[in-house]
Every structure is written in structure tokens, then in C-alpha cells.
Amino acid sequence: MKQTCLNFSILIIVLTIATQSFANEAIGYFKKVNKAVSIVRGEKTISAKTGDSVCVNDIITTDHKGTAGILLKDDTRLSIGPDTELLIDKYIYNPSKQRFSFISKITEGTLLFISGKISKRKPESVKINTPLGTIGIRGTRFLVKIDSDSQK
């Protein structure tokens, strides 16, 4: 009985560590950062710099002068404008297994999206959620602006 409990405890620890490392796997990087851009990663808030990684579950925020350019593994490009909050909710780019998905949520601010390989191979798997609806990707680029007043 003791051995079974010990084995189960070890299994839980290994699965927890594996899940955390997968969640922190880089899916892209900041190609350009201008002024104040922050990454909320778990319990930490980090000042973003050019070259920093972007991970699933990151919340990227900019102040009133901040902007950022992000390049994801599949060549998707995100340009984030001032006063923006963007959550990278899900990202799967695994061409060898034909698994693709990109889901994010913009709660305020401006986002220019230029599609990469995920949008070209499986456009229905790309979604940008907003406070008022979901944008499904069928083209190659779009711009969305969410004013804080539009959420009321």
C-alpha cells in the first residue's frame, strides 16, 4: 500500500512538472518592443524586451505609448498597439501530426493579425475572441480595435 501511494505521488509530481514546462514552451518571440510592454506569465509580470519568448497563457499588455511586434513559430505576425491587453489562450503548431490551433483574446486595444501557416492549412482553427464576439480567420490579415467604451 505504501509503495502504491509513493508511486502515485511520484506520477502526480512528474505530470505536474511536464504540464508546467509544456505551458511555458516558447511559441514565438517579440520581434520588436517599443516603450512599455509587459508579459503576465503566471504570477509574474515581466517587462518585455526584443527577443523575449512568448508562451501559451501569456497576457501581453501595453501602456498608452507601448507597441509590440510578435512572430510565432508558424510565421503568424501580431502587431499590438497602445493600451492593449492580449491573452494567448491556445497554440498548437505540429505539421507532422496535422495538428493546428491558435486561439487568443483581446479585451482592449488594437491588434493587427497577419496569418501564418496555421491559417493557411486549417483556417477554422484560428480564432480571436473579443468582448463582443469571435473573429474567425478566412483571409490573410485584419485589424481589430476594441475601445473600453465598446464593452458596455
Please give a handful of descriptors for the protein shown:
single chain, 152 residues, alpha+beta, Jelly Rolls, 18% helix
| Principal-axis shape | globular
Low-confidence stretches: 14-22
**What is the number of strand segments?**
12
Helix content: 10-25%
Question: What can you see in these coordinates?
Answer:
The chain has helices spanning 2-23, 117-121; strands spanning 26-34, 37-41, 44-47, 53-55, 59-62, 67-72, 77-80, 85-94, 99-114, 126-130, 133-136, 141-146. By secondary structure, the chain is of the alpha+beta class. It has one domain (27-151): Jelly Rolls (Sandwich), CATH 2.60.120. Strands 1, 2, 3, 4, 5, 6, 7, 8, 9, 10, 11 and 12 form a 12-stranded mixed sheet that branches.
Concise account of the structure shown:
The chain has one domain: Jelly Rolls (Sandwich). It is 18% helix and 50% strand. The chain contains two helices and twelve strands.
